[in-house]
Amino acid sequence: MNLIRNILLVILLIQFLIFLYVKIFDSLKPTLITQQNTNPNIQKQVSLESFVTKSITAIIDGSKELPQSSEYTLWDKEMIDNLNKEIHTFNDKIKKVVHNKMPIEKEKTVLKVEVKVSTSEKVAKYAKEQLGQKYVWGATGPLTFDCSGFTRAVFLCTTGIKIPRVSRNQAKIGKYIKYEELKRGDMVFFDTEKKYSGKVNHVGIYLNKGNFIHASSAKKKVIITNFKKKPFYKNRFLWGRRVVQNPS
């Protein structure tokens, strides 16, 4: 990287030198033309291009330094001194590389691993972030929920899908899923009334390993329930609905 930095420095330096030598050429042009006319040994016509090219080449290869002038300010002189030092340093490094005395630094390749999170994972993660939030009948969030208000808020915030507001209507959308086919992100529907009628009155979201998350009116908060540990919910399970494609 240091070598690349120095090469870029030289490019900027060349631009500066061209600007500098255009000024010098303009000031020396009368003298150069006079020498051309009076000296028979000078056969080639003096031009700005040849003057600048020869001057810059000599400076870059280290055989010549940037010229100083009594007309320069102190800041100008310090800047030129620093540029001369940078040129010498650059030339030394180039010579070492050419003679295999200094290895060329290679840019390190950093592998970026992009982890893709499935929609069902986002649904489950967001739902679990609401654990402990209070149950309030008719509430749709963001701090309190009832069961269908909870499922609606989760899907809206993670997928942008606007499912119906009440559980009996939510139970009509998406793909019908049996208990044995449940996957993370599926909605699960129940009849939790004391007198069983087979009608939907409660909903939650399936997580995995027999667990589902829901806003419980009995516990007055968002909780996770396991079907095996709470056989009541297994016995009152009606069906599932899948609104997330390719759940995991």
UniProtKB/TrEMBL annotation:
PROSITE patterns: NLPC_P60. The keyword Protease applies. This is Peptidoglycan lytic protein P45. GO terms for biological process: proteolysis. The chain crosses the membrane at residues 7-25. One of its GO terms (molecular function) is cysteine-type peptidase activity. It holds the Pfam family NLPC_P60. Belongs to the peptidase C40 family. Residues 117-244 form the NlpC/P60 domain. The keyword Membrane applies. The lineage of its organism: Bacteria, Pseudomonadati, Campylobacterota, Epsilonproteobacteria, Campylobacterales. InterPro entries: NLP_P60_dom, Papain-like_cys_pep_sf, Peptidase_C40. PANTHER family: MUREIN DD-ENDOPEPTIDASE MEPH-RELATED. Keywords: Hydrolase, Membrane, Protease, Thiol protease, Transmembrane, Transmembrane helix.
